């Protein structure tokens, strides 16, 4: 039956796989549920939000955002450059760490599941200890994740294949045993962006701190994006 499938987890697993494929040098596009990605960006990063319509609490959250009509050509390239600079200069104060409230995980216990999530033959790792601040807890250095025992990445193209041990397929059905204990792992934040002291050093060895190459000279003033969406052309599409 259709109701027997975890459609949300499937969409997320597929999107994770496509985001991984899109980072490869030969990739020129991105598949997956991009509405989910777009709405996630709007929820967490106020600098990139368009206008928003009031809506009923029972309506899908993503449906309130008004997608702006964006320009093309040179203006689009200039806008992309502004976005990249904003991302490079993003600070902890520019992030809405708990857009769903500090206790959202109590309403959806499966959000604390840790282990692979699946879509068809795709399985992608999921670990809430990577993002404890979205639960209102201090960010720690995440524990080691469950990893595949083998993988195949061709020299060209964007596809890749990951091989998991058979027992991994059973983790999703044992949520009680695979649920992260927040109070054991960390403690509630005093400030929304609170981290342990050694976390930044750990993070910088595993991530790219900047999108653009640093330039010489004086730092440039921080750009501000002003979204002026007219209700006259309210939606080419609404997410």
Automatic annotation (TrEMBL):
One of its GO terms (biological process) is meristem maintenance. It comes from the Eukaryota. Residues 3-203 form the Aminotransferase-like plant mobile domain. This is Aminotransferase-like plant mobile domain-containing protein. It comes from Linum tenue.
């Amino acid at each position: 039956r259709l109701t027997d499938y975890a459609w949300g987890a499937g969409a997320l697993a597929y999107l994770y796989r496509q985001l991984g494929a899109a980072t490869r040098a030969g990739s020129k596009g991105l598949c997956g549920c991009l509405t989910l990605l777009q709405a996630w960006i709007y929820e967490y990063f106020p600098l990139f939000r368009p206008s928003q319509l009031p809506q009923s609490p029972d309506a899908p959250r993503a449906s309130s955002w008004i997608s702006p009509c964006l320009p093309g050509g040179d203006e689009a390239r200039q806008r992309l450059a502004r976005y990249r600079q904003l991302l490079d200069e993003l600070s902890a104060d520019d992030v809405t760490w708990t857009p769903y409230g500090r206790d959202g995980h109590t309403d959806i216990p499966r959000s604390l599941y840790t282990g692979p999530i699946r879509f068809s033959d795709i399985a992608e790792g999921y670990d809430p200890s990577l993002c404890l601040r979205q639960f209102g807890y201090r960010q720690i250095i995440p524990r080691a994740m469950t990893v595949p025992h083998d993988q195949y990445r061709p020299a060209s193209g964007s596809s890749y294949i990951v091989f998991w041990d058979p027992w991994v397929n059973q983790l999703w059905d044992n949520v009680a045993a695979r649920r992260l204990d927040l109070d054991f792992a960390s403690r509630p934040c005093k400030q929304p962006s609170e981290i342990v002291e050694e976390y930044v050093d750990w993070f910088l060895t595993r991530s790219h701190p900047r999108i653009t190459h640093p330039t010489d000279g004086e730092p440039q003033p921080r750009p501000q994006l002003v979204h002026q969406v007219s209700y006259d052309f309210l939606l080419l599409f609404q997410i």
